[in-house]
Amino acid sequence: MRTPAFNPHTPVKSAPTDFRRFEFSFPTLDTEVQVQACDDGVVVRATRDSFSEDRKASFIHELASEGFIPDEFLWYSAHGTGPLVSWTVDPFWKGATPGIAHRRLVYVQALSYTALVAALFMGLLFTGSLGGFHLGAPDSHHEAPAAVTPR
Fold first, then answer.
1. What are the two backbone dihedrals, phi and then psi, of residue 37, each rounded to the nearest 5 degrees?
2. Do residue 60 and residue 25 come from a single domain?
3. Are 98 and 90 in contact (CB under 8 A)?
């Protein structure tokens, strides 16, 4: 899956949850992100794995340039150089908005109902209970029906 490049003009919603923790919403990626600045680095939790390594580095640079995390993260590299940044993907963390959680629930329910209907249909089809269709070779011991003659 290709991730769109970082665009600084794309609207991103953020809300501080405490002095060193911030939540961001990326509606076009259907992703919620929580950033927490710790003494030994930055911890980033996302609801989906929708960021490429380069996009992650751009996001960290933007956070540092906007003052969300320390300035030392301006030199962060996706290739392991610079300060410590820990990325985790957790689709069920509490920061997910109800809209995203509801969409996922509806999606899972739709898949479940579709699988159930398909299983019932296949069961009826292969047991011979669906419209008189029978799979396999016709029985050879049955004779042709007698012809009806008019009186």
1. -85, 120
2. yes
3. no
